[in-house]
Specification:
mainly alpha, transmembrane helix, 84% helix, membrane
Length: 133
């Protein structure tokens, strides 16, 4: 392990933690003290998943793919839980929050989806690179 790899790992992990806290803060604004769309609170797991994505990005090429696959799997499970919880809670709560603060919903959705697209893209590039090798 080189000093550069350690610096990248700490740096990307920290950036992921800051970003994950932003996702969680946006989600908890939608929860509204239990009177809003409570299911959005499940995305607070981004506090763990986004730093894990950052650490996976900084990992050596040989161990990057399994870490990215783990992050992608955990994220997919969280997305499924979010969808199921929203359905179970009732979509009208989401509509109510949308009516009150559409910009908050858009901000949360952007933050939540953007890093997932980045993770999926990096994982696909890793798989394609492995197939070419």
């Amino acid at each position: 392990m080189t000093d550069r790899w350690l610096l990248y790992t700490i740096g990307l992990g920290f950036l992921g933690l800051v970003y994950g806290c932003g996702v969680a803060a946006a989600a908890f604004r939608l929860v509204g003290g239990g009177h809003g769309w409570v299911s959005a609170g499940f995305s607070a797991v981004g506090v763990l998943l986004v730093p894990a994505f950052g650490v996976a990005l900084a990992s050596p090429r040989g161990s990057r793919r399994p870490l990215l696959a783990w992050v992608a799997t955990a994220t997919l499970l969280t997305d499924l839980l979010l969808i199921f919880a929203t359905w179970n809670e009732g979509v009208p709560y989401l509509v109510k929050v949308w009516s009150a603060a559409p910009s908050g919903v858009v901000l949360w959705a952007f933050l939540w989806i953007a890093w997932q697209l980045a993770a999926a893209g990096v994982l696909m590039l890793e798989v394609l690179a492995a197939r070419r090798a």
